[in-house]
């Protein structure tokens, strides 16, 4: 089927200070009808220069959080279908072929599709601990798909039928402890703020038991130990995220009780962004 007969697609790529990885991402989506890059206004490396080799549709926007950035960009897409690909991700040939099949069917009766993400950690695919079942809604009709109003781990919501794609895209989730720890502070703050806005109250058992449960679930129940040292590092990091998230929520509530705005205690504004996901927590949090 010719390109004129199938539905057309915009590959939407959020980007900021991603010169080390953005070229591979752009190369993997050259088949898309449009490549739309939304560049963090605070980006200061060669990311824009590299993007200009692949597309002339580069929009600059102040980065607040991942969901807000993408929701601002989605209506700017020229094509009726959108596929969101983060700068540290790659569309595999298998995924490309499957997406083109769906577009040839003009959506195949669905308004969106969850796509399997294969996560790499220090260059090795992670097969356990919960990472093997990582499906994200990344392909959807432009006019109906929007991200949830969450600062951490927001997912796309569409009102209609949602399908699933098994062909994966690749996610290079970890590029060193220094960058991880920078994002650790930012993501745990945003997660605590999400809980704060929901009116959640921290308790001692959340601080004590939830981190242990997260570690046990990922490392033992979901067989993270089969991934060796990488599995141990991932489960341990996820437990740290849970503890720190609730500790920051406790601090916010404590300062509220002192007549101060608790949300200012862990303000991380001014941190240059890399638009999403060297995630301190590998899967959507359950606690």
Task: Name a few traits of the molecule.
287 residues; alpha/beta; Spore Coat Polysaccharide Biosynthesis Protein SpsA, Chain A; 2 domains; 9-stranded mixed β-sheet; two-stranded antiparallel ribbon; 21% strand
Summarize the structure.
With 287 residues, the protein is α/β, with parallel strands linked by helices. The chain has helices spanning 22-28, 47-51, 66-73, 93-104, 177-197, 204-221, 228-257, and strands spanning 9-15, 34-40, 58-61, 81-84, 89-91, 112-121, 124-125, 135-141, 146-147, 156-157, 162-172. Helices cover 35% and strands 21% of the residues.
CATH superfamily of the largest domain: Spore Coat Polysaccharide Biosynthesis Protein SpsA, Chain A
Poorly predicted ranges: 269-287
- How many helical stretches? 7
Residues in helices, as a percent range: 25-40%
Distance between the termini: 46 Å
Per the CATH scheme, the topology name of the largest domain is Spore Coat Polysaccharide Biosynthesis Protein SpsA, Chain A
Structural class: alpha/beta
> What is the approximate shape?
globular
Q: DSSP strand (E) fraction?
A: 15-25%
CATH second-level architecture of the largest domain: Alpha-Beta Complex
